[in-house]
Amino acid sequence: MSYCNTDLKRYYTNIDEFDLKKTLLDEWTHITDGIHKYYDSGSAVKLYKDGVDLGAAQASEAAVTEVGEWFYDSTNDYIIIKCTGDVCNSVMQTAPYDWSNAKASAITDAAEWLEGMLDNRFPRPLPKNSDGNYDWVLERLNGLLACVILVRSTDPTSDVIDALMAEVTNEQGKGLLDLLNMGAIKLGFEITRTESELTNGTQDATTTGRIDDVRGRPGVDYEKYTITISTGGTLTLGTENTTVKYSVIDSQGNGVITAEAITGRFQQLGGGMWGRFVPGVYVADDTWYLTVTGMPSNTGVVYSTRLKR
Predict the structure, then answer these.
(1) Which one of 44, 96, 156, 281 has the lowest number of neighbouring Cβ atoms within 10 Å?
(2) Which residue segment(s) compose the domain that 177 sits in?
C-alpha cells in the first residue's frame, strides 16, 4: 500500500545521493590469479566499481572467472571479485538493495508510518478522491517520509532528515501532517454533514451502539441506504471485534456491503460515505438509514506554487 509513486525527486531533488551505497575502505585480499576477497563486507546485492554497476552477482564463487565478475558469500560475509592483476585499486561500493527496490520498499514503509501518525478519525487505508487519485497532501507526506527513511539508512546524521521532517511535522504545528490532523487541510472524501443524513431505523431495546461521524464525498446523485447489523455482539474499545458484522443495501435492494466485520474505525457505508460504529452492544437486525446526495462542498484543499524573487 502506498500513496505516491517512486519519483522521489519530486519531494527531495538530491535523493539519489542517498542510494544506500557504502564505500569499501579496507584493502582487498589477493587470493590468486586476480581473484580478491573483501571480508566482513556486509550484505551486497549490488557492487559498483568507480561508480559503474558491475551487474548481477554470479551464482557461486566458482563462477567468478572473468574480470569484473563477483559473488557475495552471505554465510561467511565476504565479496569475491576478479580484477586485473594482483591489486584491486578502484573505488568499490556496495548496496544492500537495488535502488528501484529500495525506493519501493521505503515508500511502502513510509505509507504505514504515515497511517500511524494520522488522527484516528481517518479510515485505513485512506480512500482516493473523486478523480480516482490520492490527495496531493497524502502523496507528498508519503514521499517525504520515504525520503527520510532512505536518507536515514544511508547517513543517520544528515541534516537533510530534520529538514524533511520539518515539512511533515514541527513544533509550530505548521507541518502538513499537523494541518491535516487538525482539519486545516481537508481530504477529498471529507465533506460537511449536511450532504448526508443518518437516521435511526429500528434497534433492539438492549442496543447501546450507534453509527457516528459520517463523512465522505458523495459518489451518487441521490440514494438511501439501509444499514443492518447482520451478526450481533458487543464491540469493546481496545479489542479486535470478530463477531459483530453489518450489511448495506441500496434503495433498490441491491447488496452494497455483505456481512463486513465491524472494527470501530471508519468503514464504508455506501455512496462514497464512511462512518464509525462506536463501542457498545449491537443486536442482529438493528437498522439505520443513510441518505446521500451528490452535491459535494468545497473541501478547502490547500495548493502550493513556486515563487521567485
Answers:
(1) 156
(2) 8-16+98-182
